[in-house]
Design goal:
The complex is a heterodimer.
Chain A lengths: L3 H4 L3 H28 L16 H23 L6 H33 L7 H21 L4 H29 L20 H53 L1
Chain B lengths: L1 H18 L1 H21 L3 H32 L3 H7 L4 H30 L7 H26 L5 H12 L1 H15 L7 H28 L1
Helix pairs in contact in B: 1-5, 2-3, 2-5, 3-5, 3-6, 3-7, 3-8, 5-6, 5-9, 6-7, 6-8, 6-9, 8-9
The chains are: A mainly alpha, B mainly alpha.
Chain lengths: 251, 222
């Protein structure tokens, strides 16, 4: 079919994506191995600290994904930079972001149960993350409503920005409301000394890098899928018509 | 822009006065919500009175969804929305008008609900100025976001289910800040409400500004 060469990424891009996928897989496997077997248990948290090689990286990826989705939405709305790929990028990034937000909530909850004594506490960061989860589920639901490409893209982009502007307001108002979350303690802002040492710091760093690679890999594939879906929508009908005509000629 | 806003708000409120959908449906719905909260929490006033601020604002939030749906239901009948688009009115004016009409209706509803929480939950109404200020700023924010998401969802087949999902998480800060402001006022310490009122004002100003900018393109698309 004539549509295939345009729908699939070029050979070089496909190879790059595959290499990225392998690197992400190796990175996650190495993080798991280092986190579970090589690093020592923490002085205070014991073996619970091993969850922290996963939890902050998933949270980072979730926020990174929403940030990229918002920038892409803004670029789509800006007339000079309006292009279909920004809409697909926003959708793909938000979808991966929702998955990682879910993972962040689950891993945080598992860590909170033995540490705070409850699966859930009404802490600013947790509450904001949970609200973000439903906010972007709403955004994805809106994206799924069928419609003409540019109409759908524009309303999705505006909805994404309405949601994104809400994030700091939610965060600060909930923070005022109550505060319990452990402040990020990897780096001390006054002395610039790292609190996490040796193998633990390296494992955490590797976690951040490999989860970011996983994000890029998932997002690139989701982007490709969205492009294929759009192609199917626009050209599928023509192909079906051509097939029917061919049948009629044969018959 | 303001003249157009007054025209649109006048039209929406005139339709409401003649059809009385808000009076006959949204008002009773909000009272039903108050009664249901009472059933859920039990008859103990020691429990109900401290919770009345939060319950009041949840009832307002749920009513906002209905008010916004109604605001766009009147535009979908007889393709009135096309008329609105072709009318040559400033889109920002249309946004302000529709939001203003929703605001006016919700404020009336809130007055009734205030009496409701005083009677049903035994809330001691004090700090009247803070109560009114929180209602004014909070409801303006609700009406602005509601009108904005209302136009996003209107015309879609799944609008009834989509609107609450889009709207309610975004207005979470309004629920939080308005409840805290009311809590402070009802507890007889209106001075503690100051920061929360600021949150409500910032929220309202932000979303009114976004609505003024974004409403035009959204109205064209639907």
């Amino acid at each position: 079919m004539s549509t295939q060469p345009r729908a699939l990424p070029s050979d070089r891009a496909a190879v790059a994506l595959r290499v990225l996928g392998v690197a992400a897989l190796v990175g996650v496997a190495a993080t798991a191995w280092l986190g579970l077997f090589v690093t020592p248990p923490d002085e205070y948290m014991g073996n619970l600290v091993r969850l922290l090689y996963v939890h902050p990286p998933t949270a980072w990826v979730a926020f990174l994904a929403y940030g990229i989705a918002s920038v892409a939405s803004l670029l789509y709305l800006w007339p000079r930079t309006r292009a279909e790929h920004f809409d697909r990028l926003a959708g793909a990034s938000a979808e991966v972001g929702v998955v990682f937000t879910g993972l962040t909530l689950v891993s945080g909850s598992i860590w909170g149960r033995p540490t705070w004594g409850a699966w859930w506490v009404w802490d600013p960061l947790l509450t904001t993350t949970a609200l973000l989860f439903v906010l972007y589920l709403g955004y994805l639901a809106l994206r799924r409503v069928p419609g003409e490409f540019h109409v759908r893209a524009r309303r999705s982009a505006i909805a994404a920005l309405i949601a994104f502007i809400d994030v700091p307001i939610v965060y600060f108002s909930v923070e005022w409301w109550r505060s319990l979350h452990q402040a990020p303690t990897v780096l001390n802002p006054t002395t610039h000394k790292t609190y996490v040492h040796g193998s633990m710091a390296w494992t955490l760093l590797l976690g951040f890098v490999s989860f970011t690679l996983v994000y890029i890999w998932l997002m690139a594939h989701r982007y490709r899928l969205a492009k294929l879906q759009d192609l199917e929508d626009t050209e599928g009908l023509e192909i079906a018509l051509a097939e029917r005509r061919a049948e009629a000629v044969v018959g | 822009m303001l003249r157009d806003a007054m025209l649109v708000a006048g039209k929406d409120l005139r339709i409401e006065i003649r059809s009385r959908v808000g009076l006959n449906q949204i008002g009773p719905f909000a009272i039903a919500v108050l009664l249901l909260f009472g059933l859920a929490l039990g008859p103990d006033r020691q429990v109900l009175a401290p919770a009345s601020a939060g319950l009041f604002w949840v009832a307002v939030l749920l009513s906002t969804v209905l008010a916004v749906q109604r605001s766009y239901a009147i535009e979908s009948a007889d393709a009135a929305r096309d008329g609105l688009r072709l009318s040559g009115l400033d889109p920002a004016g249309i946004f302000l008008g529709k939001a203003g009409a929703v605001l006016a209706q919700l404020l009336v509803l809130e007055a009734a609900l205030t009496v409701g929480v005083a009677l049903l939950y035994g809330a001691h109404l004090s700090g009247g100025l803070v109560l009114v200020a929180a209602c004014a700023a909070g409801t303006l924010g609700l009406a602005a976001v509601g009108t904005l998401y209302g136009v996003v969802a209107s015309g879609l087949r799944t609008r009834e289910t989509l609107l609450p999902l889009l709207l309610l998480p975004v207005v979470a800060p309004v629920l939080l800040a308005a409840t805290k402001a009311w809590d402070a006022a009802l507890a007889g310490a209106p001075g503690r409400a100051g920061g929360w009122l600021d949150v409500l004002v910032v929220f309202a100003v932000l979303y009114v500004a976004i609505g003024i900018v974004a409403f035009g393109p959204l109205l064209e698309d639907g």
